[in-house]
Amino acid sequence: MKNMSKRPQKMSAENITSFNKLYNEYYDRFVRFANVYVRDAAVAEDIAVDALMYYWENRLSISDESNIPAYILTMIKNKCLNHLRHLHIREEFSENIRQYQEWELGTRIATLEACEPSELFTAEIEQLIQEALSQMPERTRAIFILNRYENKSYKEIAQEMNISFKGVDYHIGKALKILHVHLKDYLPFFYFFIN
């Protein structure tokens, strides 16, 4: 029974010695091989160490007749391929993002070049005026339109609407108050309507 307990320890020491010999003899070669392809010394070292550790952890399932350095080199080759494929996918993804960013930037430039602030300003103000007009009582709206859009005087409007001069003045004032609220951000334009 003593012999059996000593024998696994002796084999384990032999295995460690064998592994150390393999490591010392091939590690630098494995790293150089990996570095030729991955072109990153730290990554090459990680790949070589991973392959050696994988061999060590699975050594009992490997046939004694196997060419161990070739077996480890095959693992290194596969790990390098996986690394390069991962880099390739990452580069494609980065390229797609770069192309999208270029397209998006080009779109912003083209949109800004085509933008006419005066048209935007006019369209926005026109929309605000239409909203204000829609909120006015019908008679106030009609009087305001006759005055500001059809250029009729207070006297002409009073005759047409069959109301007093003061009534026209009241409705125009009411319309201007509603417009003032809607056009508060465009006061210079609002003052254009007052005059």
CATH class of the largest domain: Mainly Alpha
Which structural class fits the helix and strand makeup? mainly alpha
The percent of residues in helical segments reads over 70%
How far from one another are the termini? 116 Å
Secondary-structure element sequence? Answer: HHHHHHHH
Mean pLDDT rating: 84
**CATH level-two architecture of the largest domain:** Orthogonal Bundle
The low-pLDDT segments are 1-11
Q: Supply the number of structural domains.
A: 2
Shape: rod-shaped
Q: What's the story with the biggest beta sheet?
A: none
List keywords for this structure.
Rna Polymerase Sigma Factor, Chain: A; mainly alpha; Arc Repressor Mutant, subunit A; 2 domains; rod-shaped; 195 residues; 8 helices; 0% strand; single chain
Task: Walk me through this protein's architecture.
By secondary structure, the protein is mainly α. The chain folds into two domains: 7-109, Rna Polymerase Sigma Factor, Chain: A (Orthogonal Bundle), CATH 1.10.1740; 117-194, Arc Repressor Mutant, subunit A. 85% of the residues lie in helices and 0% in strands. The protein contains eight helices and no strands. The protein has helices at 2-38, 41-57, 68-114, 117-135, 138-148, 154-161, 165-182, 187-194. The longest helix has 47 residues, at 68-114. The relative contact order is 0.05. This is RNA polymerase sigma-70 factor (ECF subfamily). Belongs to the sigma-70 factor family. ECF subfamily. It comes from Macellibacteroides fermentans. Residues 127-178 form the RNA polymerase sigma factor 70 region 4 type domain.
